[in-house]
Design a protein that fits this description.
Blueprint lengths: L3 E4 L2 H7 L10 E5 L13 E4 L2 E6 L2 E7 L2 E4 L4 E5 L4 E9 L5 E6 L1 H4 L3 H5 L18 H19 L6 H26 L1 H20 L3 H4 L4 H7 L4 H12 L3 H19 L4 H8 L4 H12 L3 H7 L1
Parallel strand pairs: 1-3
Antiparallel strand pairs: 2-9, 3-8, 4-7, 4-9, 5-6, 5-8
Helix pairs in contact: 4-5, 8-9, 10-11, 10-13, 11-12
């Protein structure tokens, strides 16, 4: 086996589970009841050339993505997109319904509206530790959509099949967006703690003068320091405050800039470089976008 096994097609994934060839070349549903990952693929790093939505319920096993590992025992939904590299240690379950996986290749949605908007479903970029946990009622709703997709590709394919399959995948993603909103809302106390840690991180970044070596703080840096994916951090903050992580960083920079403009004789360029901007004109542009006036005008009218 190669160091990384490339799963480029639905057929490749069926091979991983030791299943027969799929009914449809671009979409398939794997029921984990009675299906297990072949031993030769245990702990093997696999790169995905397709989208994969999985729900695992009361299942023993784990998945590794990057440096993170997630234990499936609690039950969860994970969203995988093309280009991600993961590894499994296999899975075992005694549950009546251990879960399922919905696989679909980018070619299935390429000419559809979903193909244009798929990147808007930011949970495909979340870390595996940021899985979606769903209620029994939510499980039923998703299972009903899943059955419609399966019915479409199991029967004779006609000119309506692909459109109906894609529409139901989009419906599932929209429901998952709603469920993630609910999860953010029910964890509001945890989210407020993250907001406080995020703000402290920015203050510490400048008190340690990291900007002089690393430049402006960005969402990727903050995510790493807070052990979150950049997308999850940004979505969490937006649900809690109405502003993305990038907006929070920009606001923090502008507030620091205002204080320096009013309380020092440093030039606008000196302030810009001191904040970590590579070019002073980028600072001036951001300042004007945020305040409506230039840094020089702000200093003169206050």
């Amino acid at each position: 086996m190669p160091e990384i096994y490339h799963i480029e097609s639905v057929s490749d994934m069926h091979k991983v589970f030791g299943l027969p060839k799929p009914k449809h070349p671009l979409v398939s549903i794997i029921n984990f009841k009675g299906a297990e990952i072949e031993p030769e693929f245990h702990n093997l790093r696999c790169s995905f050339g397709m989208y994969c939505i999985t729900h695992k319920n009361e299942t023993e096993g784990s998945m590794r993505y990057g440096r993170s590992s997630y234990d499936f025992q609690e039950g969860s939904m994970l969203f995988i997109k093309p280009g991600q590299v993961l590894s499994y240690d296999g899975h075992r379950s005694s549950a009546e319904d251990p879960g399922w996986a919905l696989l679909f290749h980018p070619d299935l949605i390429r000419r559809s509206e979903l193909g244009k908007s798929i990147d808007e479903y930011s949970f495909f970029s979340y870390d595996i530790s940021e899985a979606l946990h769903i209620s029994d009622e939510e499980k039923v709703a998703l299972r009903e959509i899943l059955e419609k997709i399966e019915k479409e590709y199991q029967q004779n394919i006609d000119r309506h099949s692909q459109k109906l399959i894609v529409s139901n995948i989009e419906l599932m993603l929209d429901y998952c967006t709603r469920y993630y909103d609910r999860q953010f809302y029910t964890r509001t106390n945890i989210n407020k703690d993250v907001l406080a840690r995020f703000e402290s991180l920015l203050k510490e970044y400048y008190s340690n003068e990291n900007q002089l070596e690393l430049g402006l703080p960005n969402v990727s840096y903050c995510g790493r320091e807070l052990s979150m994916s950049p997308k999850y951090l940004s979505d969490l903050l937006k649900k809690e405050t109405g502003k993305s992580a990038k907006n929070h960083i920009d606001d923090f920079l502008i507030n620091k800039a205002k204080n320096q403009l009013l309380n020092s004789s440093d030039s606008v360029s000196e302030i810009a470089y001191g904040l970590g901007f590579e070019y002073s004109q980028h600072f001036s542009k951001l300042f004007k976008v945020k305040t409506g006036i230039s840094p020089g005008s702000f200093r003169n009218v206050n």
